[in-house]
């Protein structure tokens, strides 16, 4: 059974300090800096709290990028759901900015674009993974995961049933309670 797995800690670099030892970053589950969850083996959710400083966010994002590159090479596509545009292409050229305002549902054409991009990327190579990124607003991640679950249920093969189960578990356990009623109705 493939259930979502959360990364418990990543090395943390304090802004402005060089050649320092690294310390673990607790996940948001522990009330701290980030939450990185392998929803399936090929779909990863990464969220950062909106309250973290810009400098801390960028340094922690660099650490996440290093981890993704070491584990997946250049085989990952980042879907940036953040309302504010961050130039994530400096860290990974395969980044799509597809954000919308927090606490709102996205336009339907945007959601179709996101689902088709995920499907296309994942189907193009068995080593490809999708990283769904958002700074603040786990509800947006929930909308994308839920929409992709429905999309793959319509267009996917039977062998993806376990992935759909893992996505459903992630949705129920981590993001459903954080979504706005309009976001739930949208899905």
Q: What's the CATH class, please?
A: Alpha Beta
Largest sheet: 6 strands, mixed
- Bin the strand percentage: 15-25%
Report the radius of gyration as a whole number of Å.
16 Å
Morphology call? globular
The CATH homologous superfamily is named Protein tyrosine phosphatase superfamily
CATH structural fold name: Protein-Tyrosine Phosphatase, Chain A
Distance between the termini: 25 Å
- Taking all residues together, what is the mean pLDDT? 76
Q: What structural class is derived from the secondary structure elements?
A: alpha/beta
User: Segments where pLDDT lies below 50 for 5+ residues?
Assistant: 1-32
Total domains:
1
What share of residues is helical?
40-55%
What is the number of helical segments per DSSP (H or I, 4+ residues)? 5
The helix/strand series, from N terminus to C terminus, equals EEEEEHEEHEHHH
Tell me which oligomeric state these chains represent. Answer: single chain
Lateral arrangement of strands in the main beta sheet:
1-4-5-8-6-7
| CATH architecture group name | Alpha-Beta Complex
Secondary structure: number of strands: 8
Salient structural properties:
single chain, 187 residues, Protein-Tyrosine Phosphatase, Chain A, two-stranded antiparallel ribbon, 5 helices, 19% strand
Structure write-up:
- There is one protein chain.
- This protein is of the alpha/beta class.
- The protein has a single domain, classed as Protein tyrosine phosphatase superfamily (Protein-Tyrosine Phosphatase, Chain A, Alpha-Beta Complex).
- The protein is 40% helix and 19% strand.
- The strands form two sheets. It has a six-stranded mixed β-sheet, with helices on both faces. A two-stranded antiparallel ribbon has the order 2-3.
- Strand 4 and strand 5 (43-48) form a beta hairpin.
- The two termini are 25 Å apart.
- Residues 1-32 have low confidence and may be disordered.
């Amino acid at each position: 059974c493939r259930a979502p797995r959360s990364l418990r800690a990543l090395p943390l670099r304090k802004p402005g300090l060089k050649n320092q030892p690294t310390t673990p970053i607790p996940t948001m589950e522990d009330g701290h800096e980030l939450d990185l969850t392998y929803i399936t083996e090929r779909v990863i959710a990464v969220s950062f709290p909106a309250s973290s400083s810009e400098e801390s966010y960028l340094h922690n994002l660099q650490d996440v990028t290093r981890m993704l590159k070491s584990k997946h090479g250049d085989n990952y596509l980042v879907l940036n759901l953040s309302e504010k545009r961050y130039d994530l292409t400096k860290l990974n050229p395969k980044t799509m900015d597809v954000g919308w305002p927090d606490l709102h549902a996205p336009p339907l054409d945007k959601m179709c674009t996101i689902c088709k991009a995920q499907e296309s990327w994942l189907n193009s190579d068995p080593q490809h993974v999708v990283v769904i990124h958002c700074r603040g607003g786990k509800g947006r991640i929930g909308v994308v995961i839920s929409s992709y679950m429905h999309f793959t249920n319509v267009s996917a093969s039977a062998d993806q049933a376990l992935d759909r189960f893992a996505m459903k578990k992630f949705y129920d356990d981590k993001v459903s309670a954080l979504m706005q009623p309009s976001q739930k109705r949208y899905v």
